[in-house]
Amino acid sequence: MREPVDILKLPLISPSDPWWQDWFAAAGVKNVDLSRLPDNSLGVQQFEGMAAIAGQGVALINPFFFPDDLASGRLVKPFDLLATADRSYWLVYPKARRRSAKIEAFRDWVLSEVAGDSERAAPMTQMKTGA
């Protein structure tokens, strides 16, 4: 593989995942139509990473979930491209419980994790098996 468009020649794991469109756009690959590909969505990055390790195709996964697999070469990043998207997550709870110690502790933990991820870099990368 020499260019990001070459990935389209390989089996994609979870091609209906909207992150694929974001990644291809960040890579400069325009007008990618993945709708004709079989939807083999596994729904969880852990499963998608395991499928890539098993040689089933190319997966979009968060590198922070697979540091040992990257370090050992079980997963490889074919391009030095990290992509982000303008998506949000919301923490919601009943207004009456906003002062709950458990909710405050969880909220503080989530915010510290997000801040740590921002410092470490990007939330998404392209990876495939080393084989």
Protein architecture, described:
The protein has a 3-stranded antiparallel beta sheet, sandwiched between helices. With 131 residues, it is of the alpha+beta class. It contains 4 helices and 3 strands. It has a domain at 4-86 and 122-129: 3-Layer(aba) Sandwich (D-Maltodextrin-Binding Protein, domain 2). It is elongated. It starts with 17 loop residues before the first helix and ends with a strand.
Give me the secondary-structure topology:
Layout: H1 18-26, H2 45-53, E1 58-61, H3 67-72, E2 75-76, H4 101-120, E3 125-129
Antiparallel strand pairs: 1-3, 2-3
Briefly, what is this?
The chain has helices spanning 18-26, 45-53, 67-72, 101-120; strands spanning 58-61, 75-76, 125-129.
CATH topology of the domain at 4-86 and 122-129: D-Maltodextrin-Binding Protein, domain 2
CA-CA gap between termini: 13 Å
Mean pLDDT value: 84
What's the helix-strand series? HHEHEHE
Helical fraction equals 25-40%
Give me the count of strands.
3
Shape: elongated
CATH architecture of the domain at 4-86 and 122-129: 3-Layer(aba) Sandwich
> DSSP strand (E) fraction?
5-15%
The major β-sheet equals: 3 strands, antiparallel
The number of helical segments is 4
> Helix/strand/pairing class, anyone?
alpha+beta
How do the strands of the widest beta sheet line up side by side?
1-3-2
> According to CATH, what is the class of the domain at 4-86 and 122-129?
Alpha Beta
Radius of gyration, taken over Cα atoms and rounded to an integer in Å = 17 Å
Low-confidence parts lasting 5 or more residues at pLDDT below 50? 121-131
